[in-house]
């Protein structure tokens, strides 16, 4: 994205339309592959929240989307860089790209560009609603419950049924030993505390730091 684009008065509208194109591409790819259930992945939901936030100029929605993805997308990008460097995926978050056809990889490019895009929007806005962490947690819980209700364990979208072997490094596999009805609760708590809370604390601190600098300027 060029600097001129973010200087444009209607840059949010332009970026929102770009995200809509990416969403349309994802839908077409998943439908053509007969993998409609994969539209329920939380990263796709967050992409939709980001697009809606940009199109409606809602700082709350873009903050929620950023909180949802900032840590996981950062790890995914590091995963891809390590793969390019030494052929390994240390975090196991991006290993799926190896099995994708070249044209279907285009539907995953938001894992690369959405994070920097939302960070730039956040820096320009300089605001971070205090209730974002709670809303991100709530949105994940709903996504998890809906995924368990409408998809099968064999697809394991959003890791709604079990933690895969690729994530054993994280220690999350211990949740697989919990009773079925407690697994979603355990996963929600872990994601809320280790993913959304650190992201919220850091983004809130950055927003307050900017407010302080502006006040002293």
Radius of gyration: 18 Å
Main β-sheet: number of strands, strand sense, barrel status? none
* Coarse morphology: globular
SSE series? HHHHHHH
Ends apart, CA distance between termini: 29 Å
Helical segment count: 7
Structural class: mainly alpha
Brief sketch in words of this structure:
The protein has 217 residues and is mainly alpha-helical. It has helices at 3-7, 11-33, 42-55, 59-86, 110-125, 132-150, 183-216.
Describe this structure in words.
The protein is mainly alpha-helical and 217 residues long. It is 64% helix and 0% strand. It has seven helices and no strands. It has helices at residues 3-7, 11-33, 42-55, 59-86, 110-125, 132-150, 183-216. α4 packs across α5 (110-125). The radius of gyration is 18 Å and the shape is globular. The protein starts with a helix and ends with a helix. The mean pLDDT is 91.
Task: Give the helices and strands, then pairings.
Elements: H1 3-7, H2 11-33, H3 42-55, H4 59-86, H5 110-125, H6 132-150, H7 183-216
